[in-house]
Amino acid sequence: MQSRLKLYTGEEAQESLVNENRVTIPLGELVSILTDASQSRRAWLRDFRHDDVQISSDLYEVLSTYWNMRRGA
Predict the structure, then answer these.
(1) N or C end: fewer C-beta atoms under 10 angstroms in the chain?
(2) How far apart are CA 16 and CA 18, in angstroms?
(3) Alpha-helical segments (H) within 1-73
(4) Number of other residues whose CB lies within 10 A of the CB of residue 34
(5) Domain for residue 3, yes or no?
(6) Are 67 and 35 in contact (CB under 8 A)?
(7) What is the mean pLDDT of residues 21-26?
(8) What mean pLDDT, rounded, does the chain reach?
(9) Residue 38 is part of which domain span?
(10) Does the pLDDT value for residue 38 go beyond 80?
(11) Residue 23 predicted with pLDDT over 60
């Protein structure tokens, strides 16, 4: 029987940590929470204003188009 060795580079552990820090929720739930926090002027919302958020490319396209149309009006 041939032995199988795996080279450990540390990347597996790093990938695991990245995935542990991600949560998937429906956009509607996120919008409701952020809208309420914004209207209530919650301080914690300002704490996260520079954090990156991942969205799908089609949602980004819709948001970008909306923002540009809104500014032009």
Answers:
(1) N
(2) 5
(3) 11-20, 27-39, 43-47, 57-72
(4) 13
(5) no
(6) no
(7) 84
(8) 83
(9) 11-72
(10) yes
(11) yes
Contact 56, 63 (CB under 8 A): no
Is this structure's pTM higher than 0.70?
no
Residue 6 maps to a domain = no
How many structural domains are present in the chain? 1
Which residue's entry shows tokens 């060795």?
5
1 within some domain: no
Q: Read off the tokens for 62.
A: 């819709």
Average pLDDT over residues 46-66: 93
Report the first-to-last Cα separation within the chain, whole angstroms.
72
Assess contact for 37 and 45: CB atoms under 8 A.
Answer: yes
pLDDT tier for residue 37 given thresholds of 50, 70 and 90 = very high
pLDDT at 44: 94
Q: Tell me how far apart the alpha carbons of residues 53 and 65 are, in angstroms, rounded to a whole number.
A: 18
